[in-house]
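Hi R.,

As promised on Friday, here is the backbone we talked about, encoded as structure tokens. Could you run it through your design pipeline when you get a chance and send me back a sequence?
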């Protein structure tokens, strides 16, 4: 099973982008408080936040299976459900990214984004790069989440196959990956909460 490191890396990457976005939000909202600007900034954040939300919602059920009894009782039904829905799930971050870009372009119309104040100028440059690389042109966030879900699908198929032969071994492999994913899930959840809280 060579997918474990790829899965862990993809979830870690999503978590790091959420951390960067939360840092940018803290800097920008710490300096700019005009209600119309903050409202538009929050619209952009909400759209990007949908990428994180879909990741959290679709990884959590797998982390909640924590012992072999639950694994034997719940895995097959959860796996069947995931197989039936994961392709539609993978498209959601791209749609959210498209909305985020529209909200970002509206945000860029605000004079606050053209500041010469060094801290804000640097912060908006970071935001520009974040949007360019992770949301729009390179779309790394959507691709990373898509890869995460595809790798998860592959991993679950391999676990399901092994479970038919040896449920104990299958659970051991399953549990090892879930343990590896948990800290990165926690990072994503923490930073997603930060950007989801009202100003």
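Update: got your reply. Pasting your designed sequence below so it's all in one thread:
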């Amino acid at each position: 099973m060579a997918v474990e490191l790829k899965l862990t890396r993809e979830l870690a990457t999503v978590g790091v982008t959420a951390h960067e976005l939360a840092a940018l939000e803290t800097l920008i909202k710490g300096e700019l408080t005009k209600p119309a600007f903050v409202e538009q900034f929050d619209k952009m954040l909400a759209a990007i936040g949908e990428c994180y939300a879909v990741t959290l919602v679709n990884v959590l059920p797998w982390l909640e299976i924590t012992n072999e009894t639950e694994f034997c009782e719940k895995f097959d039904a959860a796996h069947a459900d995931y197989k039936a829905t994961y392709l539609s799930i993978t498209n959601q971050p791209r749609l959210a990214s498209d909305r985020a870009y529209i909200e970002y372009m509206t945000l860029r119309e605000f004079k606050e984004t053209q500041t010469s104040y060094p801290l804000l100028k640097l912060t908006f440059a970071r935001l520009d790069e974040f949007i360019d690389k992770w949301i729009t042109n390179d779309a790394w966030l959507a691709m990373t989440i898509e890869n995460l879900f595809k790798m998860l699908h592959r991993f679950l198929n391999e676990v399901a196959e092994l479970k038919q032969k040896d449920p104990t071994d299958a659970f051991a492999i399953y549990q090892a990956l879930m343990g590896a994913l948990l800290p990165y899930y926690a990072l994503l959840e923490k930073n997603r909460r930060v950007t989801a809280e009202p100003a």
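One thing I noticed while checking it: The chain has a mean pLDDT of 94.

Thanks again,
M.
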